[in-house]
Amino acid sequence: MDAPRTLVSQNKPMGDRGERMAAEHLERAGWTVLARNFRVGHREVDLVARRGEVVAFVEVKTRAGLGYGHPLEAITAKKRREIQFVAQMWVDRHGREGDSYRYDAIAVLLPTGGEPRIEHVEDAWRM
Fold it and tell me: What is the DSSP string of 82-105?
């Protein structure tokens, strides 16, 4: 008998779709996506994007609806610290003189039978 699928594995395709949509949204807005799912150990940043001298470390949260709250409410203090840690590793490896860095968040809502909605919050939090 097959093992039951976990909530995480059931939501992964939706999360992957949301990350693709978020990357496309950023590119339409003039950003260049430098990395997707940049990892340091088990921690990761969903997207690293550049526009001019600004590099944004972007957390993407995707939901089918608002039944569990707004997607961005899922970015906890612990998650922000993890993203900041990974972002520092990215800067240490790839940062350039003169760049400025920030943390953005993108909510992707994929309602059944409705149009997808994307909300980009620039400079969503500070270190």
Answer: HHHHHHHHHHHHH--TT-EEEEEE
CB 46, CB 36: distance < 8 Å: yes
**Tokens encoding 5:** 């699928």
The whole-angstrom separation of Cα 85 and Cα 39 is 10
d(CA 23, CA 29): 10
Q: Give the whole-angstrom CA distance, residue 120 versus residue 108.
A: 9
pTM of the model: 0.88
Say which CATH topology domain 7-125 has.
Answer: Trna Endonuclease; Chain: A, domain 1 (3.40.1350)
In degrees and rounded to multiples of 5, residue 54 shows phi and psi of -100, 130
Tens of each residue's pLDDT in the chain, 127 residues = 444 444 455 678 888 999 999 999 999 999 999 999 999 999 999 999 999 999 999 999 999 988 888 999 999 999 999 999 999 999 999 999 999 999 999 999 998 888 999 999 999 998 6
